């Protein structure tokens, strides 16, 4: 609905930021919903997805759903290959299997969201960074920023670790995408989106208990000042953990996970991008006894979910997903995270001590 209706308006010469019910009455009644506000997406996202609006509504829904799920499958295969492919550990394989029926996956498909596609772009950006292809990584991150302004904490990490090529590429693509938006929909419409529509939609949903972003939680607990302060503390804490990490992989995954709750609005289906972090936790070989409780709670949350209870008990709408993200970040903390290099170094040191012992015995 949020892509299809504005796309129809774009091709028809109408106003893409009219309220969605008005667009539904005008172009496609089957896309009607209870949302009274305009689409929350920036002009470039509407332009990017506008070809779907050239199709009949049911065809557009089917194609987009297939595209989204295909993105999730590719992401899972890339993660599986990273952790050894057929030789991947059993916990990693089980994790990737358990998230298939996970509620956020279903929710993302049901409401026609784009988090699976963004998750794929974020994984591809990570793989590009691992290969020192900073330009490619930056361009991929720029696409994510342009479409949904998601994952921006990763850019902060890259800036602090002096990966300037990636940062410059991401920001350049973000600016270029918005210039394309200006060229297509006009400067007044673009200014209207950033100055009026986006802030208005944020103000609507910051009071919604299903919004578990730190900004939304802060506003509901302490008003505007806490809505500003709490995300700053969340960013600072996540960066502290990431910068202490001896592994670029763990640092990236920490900031990717933190991006969920540092977004201005965090919905349940945003947890789709938690899958890489869950795989990293599953791949750990040094989980301490005190962490088994947190790990068990994460597993229970992944298997059973909690969204179904949230409509009856509002506390389930905010605190379980927030606790899940915070618990995941805690399980990724570098003080207990063993990287592949560290494992290799430990094995080398062990073999060296063994050889020394044999030499002394001889």
Topology:
Layout: H1 4-12, H2 20-27, H3 43-49, H4 57-82, H5 90-98, H6 103-110, H7 115-130, H8 134-148, H9 152-160, H10 164-185, H11 187-205, H12 214-222, H13 224-244, H14 248-262, H15 275-283, H16 292-304, H17 307-310, H18 315-331, H19 340-361
Which keywords apply here?
mainly alpha; 362 residues
Short synopsis of the structure:
The chain is 71% helix and 0% strand.
Count of the separate structural domains: 1
Helical content class: over 70%
What structural category arises from helix and sheet content? mainly alpha
**What's the total count of β strands?**
0
Q: What's the number of helices?
A: 19
**Average predicted confidence as pLDDT:** 88
Order of helices and strands: HHHHHHHHHHHHHHHHHHH
Strand content: under 5%
Q: Between the first and last Cα atoms, what is the distance in angstroms?
A: 77 Å
The main sheet comes to:
none
Please compute the radius of gyration using only Cα atoms. 22 Å
Shape: globular
Uncertain segments = 335-350
What features would you describe in this structure?
It is a single chain. This protein has 362 residues and is an all-alpha fold. The chain has one domain (40-342). 71% of the residues lie in helices and 0% in strands. Helix 9 (152-160) runs antiparallel to helix 10 (164-185). The longest helix has 26 residues, at 57-82. The chain is globular and about 60 Å long.
């Amino acid at each position: 609905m949020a892509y299809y209706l504005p796309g129809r308006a774009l091709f028809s010469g109408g106003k893409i930021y009219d309220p969605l019910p008005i667009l539904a009455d005008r172009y496609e009644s089957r896309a009607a919903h209870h949302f009274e506000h305009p689409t929350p997406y920036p002009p470039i996202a509407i332009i990017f997805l506008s070809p779907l609006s050239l199709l009949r509504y049911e065809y557009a829904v089917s194609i987009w759903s297939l595209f989204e799920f295909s993105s999730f499958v590719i992401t899972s295969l890339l993660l599986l290959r990273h952790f050894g492919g057929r030789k991947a550990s059993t916990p990693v394989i089980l994790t990737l299997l358990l998230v298939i029926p996970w509620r956020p996956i279903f929710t993302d498909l049901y409401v026609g969201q784009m988090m699976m596609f963004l998750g794929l772009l974020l994984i591809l950006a990570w793989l590009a960074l691992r290969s020192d292809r900073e330009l490619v990584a930056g361009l991929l991150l720029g696409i994510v920023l342009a479409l949904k302004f998601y994952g921006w904490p990763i850019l902060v990490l890259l800036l602090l670790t002096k990966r300037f090529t990636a940062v410059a590429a991401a920001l350049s693509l973000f600016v270029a995408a918005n210039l394309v938006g200006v060229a297509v929909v006009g400067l007044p419409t673009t200014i209207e989106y950033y100055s009026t529509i986006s802030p208005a939609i944020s103000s609507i949903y910051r009071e919604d208990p299903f919004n578990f972003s730190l900004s939304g939680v802060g506003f509901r607990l302490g008003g505007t000042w806490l809505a500003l302060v709490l995300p700053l503390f969340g960013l600072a804490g996540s960066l502290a953990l990431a910068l202490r990490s001896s592994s670029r992989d763990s640092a990236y995954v920490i900031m990717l996970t933190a991006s969920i709750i540092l977004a201005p609005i965090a919905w349940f289906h945003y947890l789709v991008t938690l899958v890489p972090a869950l795989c990293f936790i599953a791949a750990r070989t040094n989980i301490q006894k005190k962490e088994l409780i947190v790990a068990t709670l994460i597993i229970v949350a992944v298997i059973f979910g909690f969204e179904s209870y949230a409509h009856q008990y509002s506390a389930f709408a905010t605190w379980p997903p927030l606790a899940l993200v915070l618990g995941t970040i805690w399980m990724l903390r570098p003080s207990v995270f063993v990287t592949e290099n560290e494992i290799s170094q430990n094995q080398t040191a062990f073999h060296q001590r063994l050889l020394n012992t044999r030499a002394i015995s001889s």
